[in-house]
Design a protein that fits this description.
0% strand; 201 residues; mainly alpha; 62% helix; Tetracycline Repressor, domain 2; homodimer
Chain lengths: 201, 201
DNA sequence: ACACAATGAGACGAGAATGTCTCAAGCGGG
DNA sequence: CCCGCTTGAGACATTCTCGTCTCATTGTGT
């Protein structure tokens, strides 16, 4: 039983369903199971065969988001080089998961008592450690706590994802705007060379 | 008919109900009308007598949020003095409405087609104009668009409100952390005197 | 004391979403 | 070719929330 071999028999693969669900729920967090099924191109019955209920689906999305986040954290090599560059790498690596993150970030408000997945605590710790490293370095200011900087990063990712999805900012500017605002803020700093508009490849 | 005279007869005042609803819906955006009523200390029947339906309640909350936002914008005197100080005044004035704003900010994602209240457009314009003024001034960097800075302010307000409500950051640091991160970013700037931790009275 | 307005409690049906079930059809492998 | 697995479509009961209704109670002003 249970699709042990990921062969060709599985016409609908969990991953494709999850991606579709993430894309839909990001835009409309109250979407029906029927809408989720239609968005994935499968029937509601099949959706239920793979995810026994809405909460199971959301938990699976949470696991996906955590996995993508940790993959981004690994790829960003947070403990190498200047902390500011690590932050830029992190934002770039996490961009593709930002919409899903935005959904989960607001959805977590609903879990209230149930206690959230411990994966988030691990991710929080790794990001906070990066900011702490930057503070020890002397790169980052010490009057903003690592916890708040982590929280602010989440907020900016969510804002950026929404702003992009509604066309208020260009998708190509996503990484640059988030990273530069988080690092440098809105103020102009004459002595820093933060004036090249895009070009971050 | 219909309580034309806002006298002493109104035992339950709309404002108290709206504040309770805002506080509850900020934490649990899918709260039931029954939960909203209990949170306000009234019965569901009475709640329905004042707000004919859930959408009416949300619209009233939206109107309240817009009103508080515009009051904060007025009180902050955005066009006086340096733009950076105007931003600090704005964050301070808007702090009391931040939780409500956070709820409405995410709720607006659901309105999809219906077109959002024009009040938000006015508020967006006023805030964006502040950032534009700072850019013309030379105070703010020009590689971050006013639209994105406005969006980022919303995101940071929401993050801050949630972080405070969950105890991840201290409520007394709310204004300082949001304003300073938005203005100065995470990087340390040796030549600027941004190192006094609190003290913003 | 009386009348009236507002509230609280609860019943009731409508509607939507969910979870489960059955049955027919498609499709690949033995 | 036939078998078995998976899917799609739909029916069905259940649950939840909503909106409306009624009725008893409270409290206030005259």
């Amino acid at each position: 039983m249970s699709q042990a071999g990921y062969g060709c028999l599985m016409a609908v693969d969990r991953h494709h369903v999850l991606r579709s669900a993430a894309a839909l729920l990001t835009r409309k967090s109250t979407a029906t199971m029927d809408e989720v099924a239609k968005a994935a191109g499968i029937s509601r019955a099949t959706l239920h065969r793979h995810f026994a209920g809405r909460d199971v689906l959301v938990r699976a999305l949470e696991a996906l988001g955590i996995a993508e986040c940790e993959a981004a954290l690994d790829a960003a090599r947070l403990d190498e080089g200047p902390a500011r560059d690590a932050v830029r790498r992190l934002v770039r690596e996490i961009e593709s998961a930002a919409a899903l993150l935005a959904f989960l970030y607001t959805e977590n408000q609903l879990f209230e008592g149930e206690g959230q997945n411990e994966g988030w605590a691990r991710i929080d710790d790794r990001i906070a450690a990066l900011f702490r490293r930057g503070q020890s370095n002397g790169e980052f200011r010490i009057d903003l706590t690592p916890a708040w900087l982590t929280e602010a990063l989440y907020g900016l990712l969510a804002s950026g994802a929404w702003a992009v999805s509604e066309g208020r900012v260009a998708a190509k500017d996503f990484t640059y705007m988030i990273a530069e605002l988080l690092l440098g803020g809105a103020l102009r700093h004459p002595e820093r060379n933060s004036e090249q508009p895009r070009e971050e490849s």
